[in-house]
Write a structure and sequence with these properties.
This protein has 1 helix and 8 strands. By secondary structure, the protein is an alpha+beta fold. The protein has 2 domains: 1-27; 33-101, no CATH class. An 8-stranded antiparallel beta barrel has the order 1-2-3-4-5-6-7-8. The longest helix has 23 residues, at 2-24.
Length: 102
């Protein structure tokens, strides 16, 4: 019987750990971070609370916002909207340019 209680304890710990991981990850957090444009080396930073910055040629735009449209798509407003899609290793914008995650 001792083996069964040990197994039950292991399952309880596994379920508890999964719950902690799932609650710690928001939909927003998978998008947040710094990205570098593969063509012109511009830098995009997506911050919490749907804010961000874009640095192009040494000039930083700090009034940037972004919104989630689906699991694989966001819109970055700089102030005009730019659609961006989740890809392996970063993002791809609506023109096909890749933004690598730093």
């Amino acid at each position: 019987m001792q083996g069964m209680s040990g197994l039950r304890g292991w399952w309880t710990a596994a379920i508890l750990a999964s719950a902690i991981v799932l609650t710690g990850c928001s939909k927003e957090s998978k998008w947040e971070g710094s990205y570098v444009n593969s063509k012109d080396k511009s830098e995009l930073e997506l911050k919490p609370e749907h804010k961000g910055t874009l640095k192009v040629g040494g000039v930083t735009t700090s009034e940037l916002s972004w919104e989630i449209k689906s699991d694989e798509k966001i819109v970055v407003n700089v102030p005009f909207p730019i659609e961006m899609f989740k890809i392996s290793g970063g993002l791809r914008d609506q023109e096909g340019t890749e933004w690598k995650k730093k």
